[in-house]
Structures are given as structure tokens and as C-alpha cells.
Amino acid sequence: MLRRSILTAGALILAFFPAVAQMQELNRAYQLFDRHRWVQARDAARAVLAASGRNYSAEFIVAGSECQIHPHRASNAIPFQRILADYRLSDRQRNSVRKWMQDCTRPAPPRQPQQAGVSAQGLSVGPDTRVADPNGAPPLRDAPRSPAGASAPVIGRIVARPAASVSADRCRAPFTWRLAFPGDHVCVTPEVRSDAADDNARAAERRNPNGPYGPMTCINGYVWREARDGDTVCVLPQRRDQAAADNRAAASRRLQP
Length: 257
What we know:
single chain, mainly alpha, two-stranded antiparallel ribbon, 5% strand
């Protein structure tokens, strides 16, 4: 109820000040989307739609946010199909929308079968090395881990992993996790990690919502970072090259088990 009231109030403000306020709210939605604050980004984009009626970029943010909030659902295709039907898009824009639709409706990967009968002897306890789920769920806590070679049982939300897997996910000094996106454990220098955070914070101001690649198009001089598939944060070309080089060197920078 409170969120609906805030959304209604925001739409009224945008209706009275359509030109400037709607663009500001759309930029805010972009910034929230870049920071993976999916619910807030969706609500900001919906406020723009409530005031303007039609806005390709706002509809794209709503569809993408819903995909992140509720992944692996066939119904995620509906808003993307509506975008394809309602707007005259370039071939590149249509391909971008279709790629999002495909990724957002992909079935969830099968769960690993639970294992029973693992001995409790020789279990070791280590620190939690994982980050929170991008949708706001707390990180899974590590249960006592079994000796190397033993199966790792899953008990509710408690995950037991072999001790060797923890070392494989930690960086050698002086490297640290890049964290360009949730779960990004590529090992990089502290300077590169700082650059990635800065690029994320400035992503919205580097976009051209009406460009040939849709709302994720970069302004002149910037390119997609592509630290992973779907990473459309706009960065300088040398930052994209750095991300690719760091990805290739990732294995050599991890602690060996």
C-alpha cells in the first residue's frame, strides 16, 4: 500500500512537470538498475510510464527489473514481447530485446542432488566468503565442510562445501575480488576494483537511451564493459580491454588448494 501511494505521488509530480521531471526520474531508474536495486528501479520506471503513457526505455527497465526479481519465469517474456510489438525498433534494438527475453525465460539450472551419509569426522569451519544474493537475500552460510574428496551435502539453506573449493575462490595478494556485479570473484588489483565501482556509479550518465542498441547504448567514446555476458555498463575502451585481460588471468591469481 505504501509503495503504491509513493508510486502514485511520483506519477502526479511527473505529470505536472513532464519534460524535466520525467527525464530526471528516468535517469534515476537507470542508476537504480545499474546498482541492481531492481524493485526501486522498476517503481521509478513505472512512475515515468504512469505520467507519459509510453516510453521505450522505461518499459525496458521495468521488464529487465522484473526479470531480475523473478528469474527463470516464462511470463517474463510478456513485457519484452509487448516492447517488440509496440515500438519501431532497429534490427540491433530488436536483437537486444530478444536476447534479454531469452535470458530472462531460461529455465533454472537443475539442483545438485542431496547427498546423505557424509561422516562428521574431520569437518572444518571456515569464514563466509560469498556475497549476498542480488535480489536481497542474505548470503548462504557455510556449514562445516567435509574433508577434500567427500561429497558436499545441502541441508535447507546451509551449504557444506569441500574445503578446497574455498581456497579456489580466494585471491592471492595483492589481488582482490573485482565485484563489478554481484558474485564477480575475478581477482584484480585494488585499483581495478575501484575503477569498476566508479564505472557502475556513473553508468547512467554515459548512456544514450535512443541509440541503435536501445536504452543500453553508450554515448560516443564509451563501450560496453562486457566483464561477463550481458554486462552493458559503459566504460572507456581501455577499461573493457582491462576486464577481458583480468578474466583471462583470473585462474592464475587465485589461491591454489
